[in-house]
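Input (structure):
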């Protein structure tokens, strides 16, 4: 894959602990520009899903990165391709998807690229960070 040096590549990862009644979930990102880490973020909450945490991380990135940016979210989670679709009454996480849609015009372009988990070590690193954040959150 060729990386454009003027595009922000935001790697996304998450974990969810379905085994505990608290169902703690965590999401994280690492934003890079021209191969350098320029920002990172991690969030955790209970009684939720990793999808909500991933969308929360996306929102944070779109709010934090400079206006008029080109942003590519890099993830292995195909669910995130819904971030820019008009929610329906049956849409899960409609509130967060609506917020993503509100933030898209703030930037020149925003997209999601689905990549293989094992090909990019950063995805494994983010998964480990989110798992650790869940443990600390409890």
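Output (sequence):
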């Amino acid at each position: 894959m060729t990386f454009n040096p003027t595009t922000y590549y935001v790697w996304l990862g998450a974990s969810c602990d379905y085994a505990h009644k608290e169902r703690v979930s965590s999401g994280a990102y690492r934003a890079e520009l021209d191969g350098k880490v320029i920002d990172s973020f991690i969030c955790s909450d209970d009684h939720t899903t990793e999808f909500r945490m991933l969308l929360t991380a996306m929102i944070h990135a779109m709010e934090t990165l400079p206006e008029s940016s080109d942003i590519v979210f890099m993830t292995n989670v195909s669910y995130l391709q819904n971030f820019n679709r008009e929610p329906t009454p049956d849409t899960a996480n409609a509130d967060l998807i609506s917020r993503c849609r509100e933030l898209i015009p703030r930037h020149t372009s925003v997209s999601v690229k689905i990549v293989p988990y094992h090909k990019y070590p950063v995805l494994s690193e983010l998964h480990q960070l989110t798992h650790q954040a869940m443990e600390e959150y409890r």
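Notes: The chain has a mean pLDDT of 95. The chain has one domain: 8-137.
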